[in-house]
Amino acid sequence: MAMTRKARLLLILLTSAISISWGSYLAQTGNQWPDFRGIYYGTRCLLQHHNPYNVSELEAVYRADGGERQSETLMVRQAVTLYVNVPTTFIFVTPFAMLPWGPAHVLWMGLTAGLFVLAAALMWNLGSNYAPDVSLFLICFLLANCEMIFASGNTAGIVVSLCVVAVWCLLKEQFVVVGILCLAASLAIKPHDAGLVWLYFLLAGVPYRKRALQALLVTAVLGVLAFLWVSNVAPHWMQDWHTNMSAISAHGGINEPSPTALTGRSSGMVIDLQAAISVFLDDARIYNPASYLICGALLLVWSVRTLRSRFSEQRAWLALAAVSALTMLVTYHRPWDAKLLMLTIPACAMLWAEGGPIGRIALLVNTAGIVLTADVPLAIFVVFADYIHVGTAGIFGKMLTVLLLRPASLILLAMGIFYLWVYVRWTAPDAHTCLD
Are 302 and 294 in contact (CB under 8 A)? Predict the structure, then answer.
C-alpha cells in the first residue's frame, strides 16, 4: 500500500529528528559545538573592540567569557581560536553573540534545524513530482546522516539550507525576493558553498541573470559594511587572517587535505579532489594545480553548455546536480558541506522517471554519493581502515587508502561527470524530454 503524503512528511521529520537528537547528544557529551563556538566568540571579540583574527586577543576574550573547555583537543582549540571566517559572517552572528552562550547556541541550532528541514522538504516535494519513492529514500537517508552539523554547529547547515531555499524560490518563481536574499546570505557566509550555484543563475539568462546580480549586490553591500566594521576595530586584520589561514592549511594542519592532517583519518575529513590526489602525491604544488585543472575543464564544459542552452526547469536541475557535486571538489570542503547534494535529488528523480539505463545509473550514482558523504558511513569507513591498519606505502596501499579514507572525493567526481554528461546530452524541449 502506497504511503500517503502525510506519512512521507512524518518520515522526513523522523529522520531529521534522528540527526538533531544524536548530534545534540554528541555535542553535549563531547566538544560542545566547536564550530559555533568559534564564530560566537569571534563575534563577541569584535563586539568588545578586539581583533578576532588575532589569536591572543581572541583567546583572552574566550577565557574571560568562560568559553574554554578542559576536554578540548588541539583540533577543537584550533577550530575555536584560529578565526578564518569571512568578515560578513560577523553581521549574521551578531544577534546571537549579543546573548549569553546558553540561549545563543540553542537559538542557533534551532534555526539550523528549521532551515535544514525546510530545504529538505522542498527538494523532496519537487522530486516527488517525478518519483516519490526515490525522492523519499534519498532525502531520508541524507537527513538521517547529518549528525555532525548539529554536533559542531557549523555554518554549513544554514548556508546549504539558504542556498537550497533560494534555488527553489528562483526556479519556481515564488517568493523571489526571499530567494534573492537567501542566495545573498549564503554567498556572504560561505561563498565557496554557494558560489557555483550563483554562477548558474548568472549564466542561465534573463530573468535569472538579473536576480543573480541583485543577490551579488546585496552580498557586496554586506561585504563593504563588514569590511569597514572590522577595519575600524582592527586595522591589521587582513595580515592576521592570512596568518591563520596559513596555519590551518599548512602540512598537517586542520584544513590540509592529506591523510597526515589532523582530520585526515576522521569522519570530518576534507573531501575535495585534492584529498584524493594527495594520497599519491602529498605536495600542494602538485595536488592543487592538478585539481584545478580537472575541475576547471569540467566547469568550462558546464559553463559553455549553460550559456548556449535555452532555459528549462529540467535542464536547470541537471545543471545544478552537476555543479553541486563539482562545488565540493574545487576547493576546501567537508562532509557537512556535501549536504548541498540535496540539489541533485530532483534531477535523479526526473531521470528515474524517464526509465532506461540512464535512470538506473542516476539512482545508483546518487545513492552512492549521498551514502559516501554521510556521517555514519564515513565513520564506519574510518573505523574499518584503522582496524585493518591501512597504510599509504606502495601503490596498492595508496589505492586502498583512497577507497577507504577518500571515498567521498571519488564519488563526487563520478557524480559531477555523470550529471555533466547527461546535461550536455539533454536536448529535448520541456514537453517531451529524452536523451539523444
Answer: no
Average per-residue pLDDT in the chain? 89
Residue-wise pLDDT tens digits, 30-56: 778 889 999 999 999 999 999 999 999
* Angle between helical axes of 132-143 and 356-371 (0-180°, round to 10): 10
Q: Is residue 340 part of a domain?
A: yes
- pLDDT at residue 264, rounded to an integer: 62
Q: What total of structural domains would you count in the chain?
A: 1
Q: Which domain holds residue 412?
A: 257-436
How does pLDDT run across 76-133, given as a tens digit for each residue? Answer: 666 777 889 999 999 999 999 999 999 999 999 999 999 999 999 999 999 999 999 9
Q: How far apart are CA 390 and CA 311, in angstroms?
A: 48
What's the per-residue H, E or C state across the chain? CCCCHHHHHHHHHHHHHHHHHHHHHHHHHCCCCHHHHHHHHHHHHHHCCCCCCCHHHHHHHHHHCCCCCCCCCHHHHHHHHCCCCCCHHHHHHHHHHCCCHHHHHHHHHHHHHHHHHHHHHHHHHHHHCCCHHHHHHHHHHHHCCCHHHHHHCCCHHHHHHHHHHHHHHHHHCCCHHHHHHHHHHHHHHCHHHHHHHHHHHHHCCCCHHHHHHHHHHHHHHHHHHHHHHHHHHCCCHHHHHHHHHHHHHCCCCCCCCCCCCCCCCCCCCCCCHHHHHHHHCCCHHHHHHHHHHHHHHHHHHHHHHHHHCCCCHHHHHHHHHHHHHHHHHHCCCCCCHHHHHHHHHHHHHHHHHHCHHHHHHHHHHHHHHHHCCCHHHHHHHHHHHHHCCCCCCHHHHHHHHHHHHCHHHHHHHHHHHHHHHHHHHECCCCCCCCEC
158 has pLDDT over 60: yes
Q: Would you say residue 384 lies in a domain?
A: yes
- Return the pLDDT at 211: 97
311, part of any domain: yes
Is residue 78 one of the residues assigned to a domain? Answer: no
